[in-house]
Amino acid sequence: xxxxxxxxxxxxxxxxxxxxxxxxxxxxxxxxxxxxxxxxxxxxxxxxxxxxxxxxxxxxxxxxxxxxxxxxxxxxxxxxxxxxxxxxxxxxxxxxxxxxxxxxxxxxxxxxxxxxxxxxxxxxxxxxxxxxxxxxxxxxxxxxxxxxxxxxxxxxxxxxxxxxxxxxxxxxxxxxxxxxxxxxxxxxxxxxxxxxxxxxxxxxxxxxxxxxxxxxxxxxxxxxxxxxxx
Length: 230
Known about the structure:
By secondary structure, the protein is α+β, with helices and mostly antiparallel strands. It has 9 helices and 7 strands; from the N terminus they run βαβαββααααααββαβ. Strands 1, 2, 3, 4, 5, 6 and 7 form a 7-stranded mixed sheet that branches. β3 and β4 form a beta hairpin. The chain is globular. The chain starts with a strand and ends with a strand. The relative contact order is 0.23. The mean pLDDT is 92.
């Protein structure tokens, strides 16, 4: 399964210059290959000398974003609220783009049929029938517009169809843990959390557990956002 951004919770607090390597090793123990840090977090804003000292504890900063640092220095609340607001607007754009089309089946339903009958229902046919649905075609057409205000990922079809509130809440839940979360210890969730499948119910189960785990962590825990594949 391809993973775009994962969050690594480190059991110790390394110096910022050593944090990326520590996170890479932490992921490798779970069979996951890291491909560098990601500009994922928004730091808490603090001015003056105090702000400069805090910045030195952050990992690879890019303007108003950072790859990580101690939880107490990261604006997790702001990240979640911004993601929620942006998703609410994105849903309205989607709602207008697919107006007049019938509800579509998510791709996993076609993939499941393929798994049940691989020879009689090949992957190519599953993909073709999924893309041929008018609602998916409407989303694909919108994504082809050169000056579109945002993308409407067809992989989010099930979440879009769940309604604006659910779509916005899903964005709030996803803002911090992203696509996967490596815990500080292998004894917790076997050291790794990620959705079991692409189904919305499995994504929500992962996000529930991941956010609950983050809330239990000490605020001095160092977290690092990494690009990774598993």
